[in-house]
Each structure stands twice: as C-alpha cells, then as structure tokens.
C-alpha cells in the first residue's frame, strides 16, 4: 500500500511539473511575440548631416527637401529677434478656439508613431510617424538638432518637426504663457503662430540635465495643423534623453 501511494504521488508531481513547465514556455513565447510586434522600428531611414559633409553626394530629391527645410529653419532663426521685440507677432486672423488646444487637456495620439529615432551622444529617443524621415545634425560630434519631415508629399516645404538642443542659459520663462509637466520635466509653450500661411508651435522642454530641448512643429494650413497637433503632442510625450534604468 505504501509503495502504491508513493507511485501515485510521484505521478501527480511529475504531471504537475510538466504542465507548469509548458505553461512557462508558452508565456515566454507570447511575451516575445508581443514585444516584437509592438516595438517601433529604430532609425529605419535617415540622413546624417555634419558641417563638412559633401551635400552633392545626397540624392537630388533629398537635396531639394533638405534645402527647403534648412531655408525655413534659417528664416525662422532670423525672425526670432523680431518676435522677441514684439509679442504681438501672432496673426490676428487665427481662430484660437479652433487652432489652439491646451496640451494639458489634450489626449496625445501615439497610434501613428511606429518609428523610433535614437541618438547615442545624448541618448535621445523620439517616436515619429510612418512615412517621415529625418536629417541628423551634429556639432563637434555631438547632437545639435534633428529635423523630421513628411517625405511622401508634394507639398513644398513639407510638414516638419524640428528638435533642437538648447543652451540652458538662454531660457526665459517670461516668454511663455503656458506650462505643464511631462516625465519629470517642465514643459513651456505658447499659442500657435501663423506666418505667411504656415502655422507653427514650439514646445520648450526644461530639464535637470546639462541641456534643454525644444520641439517645433511647422505645417501649412490650419486644418492640417489641427489634425496633426495631437500627433505632435504624442511625439513630445515620447521624447526621452539620458541613460535611464527603467
């Protein structure tokens, strides 16, 4: 009788162990499949631009887009001094009830952000939409700025988002009327602005690191701006930098 009970016990223990082992294997397989399917593609397509790069080596289409994007960035830089002197630069014909949303109450749209930008010098990561590409701009072998633009369009210049590394000493909170917090960082922003048919909005990210950052969206037309603004907010929320344990 004792031998029979021992045999039954061993059989039950062996069966339970086998079931638990197979359940663990199934769980691991499902976890790996879910991780791979949900993970955005990292740096699927990009152009690296350094001060000494020969731009003639770029394809003709990329040269044209780059020139248009850089021309708008340079134009925006020249206009900064004028905007600092006159805060009334915002065009009066913008209907803020339609074109401005308070980001603190807006629901970010991350469903279309299936590509992931990753840069090593500052360990910056940012999700951006499918169909977009970017120009990576380095200064002294360190990230200076990145311009993302929608390449699958005939609009010139195309919609784009410019990420810039900002000198912390230049920060002036009085320049911004709105403030919120994301991922432990202070976020400052103003209402959208309109200039020559283009709508733009800049998000300033005040950090505890050695660098601050800004993200600027520029797009033609109020309707396009309204539809893309939740996606832009999703990009802002996806932005991370520096080494993190979690």
Structure write-up:
The model is unreliable at 2-6, 49-59 and 87-99 (pLDDT under 50). The protein is globular and about 75 Å long. Strand 10 and strand 11 form a beta hairpin. With 246 residues, it is α+β, with helices and mostly antiparallel strands. The longest helix is centred in the first third of the chain and has 37 residues, at 2-38. 34% of the residues lie in helices and 28% in strands. The chain has four helices and twelve strands; from the N terminus they run H-E-E-H-H-E-E-E-E-E-E-E-E-E-E-H.
Layout of SSEs?
Elements: H1 2-38, E1 41-42, E2 47-49, H2 60-85, H3 96-99, E3 115-119, E4 124-128, E5 132-138, E6 143-150, E7 160-166, E8 178-182, E9 185-189, E10 193-195, E11 198-206, E12 212-220, H4 222-238
Parallel strand pairs: 1-3, 2-5
Antiparallel strand pairs: 3-4, 5-6, 6-7, 7-12, 8-9, 9-11, 10-11, 11-12
């Amino acid at each position: 009788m004792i031998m029979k009970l021992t045999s039954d016990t061993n059989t039950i223990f062996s069966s339970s162990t086998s079931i638990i082992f197979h359940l663990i294997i199934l769980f691991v397989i499902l976890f790996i499949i879910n991780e791979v399917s949900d993970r955005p593609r990292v740096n699927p397509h990009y152009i690296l631009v350094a001060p000494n790069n020969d731009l003639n080596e770029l394809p003709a289409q990329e040269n044209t887009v780059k020139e248009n994007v850089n021309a708008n960035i340079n134009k925006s830089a020249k206009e900064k001094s004028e905007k600092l002197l006159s805060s009334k630069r915002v065009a009066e014909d913008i209907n803020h009830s339609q074109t401005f949303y308070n980001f603190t109450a807006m629901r970010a749209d991350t469903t279309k952000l299936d590509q992931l930008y990753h840069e090593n010098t500052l360990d910056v990561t940012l999700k951006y939409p499918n169909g977009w590409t970017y120009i990576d701009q380095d200064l002294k072998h360190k990230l200076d700025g990145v311009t993302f633009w929608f390449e699958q369009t005939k609009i010139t210049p195309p919609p784009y988002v410019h990420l810039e590394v900002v000198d912390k000493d230049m920060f002036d909170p009085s320049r911004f009327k709105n403030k919120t917090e994301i991922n432990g960082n202070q976020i400052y922003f103003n209402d959208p602005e309109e200039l020559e048919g283009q709508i733009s909005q800049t998000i300033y990210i005040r950090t505890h690191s050695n660098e601050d950052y800004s993200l600027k969206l520029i797009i033609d037309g109020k309707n396009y701006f309204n539809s893309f603004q939740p996606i832009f907010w999703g990009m802002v929320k996806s932005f991370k930098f520096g080494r993190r344990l979690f």
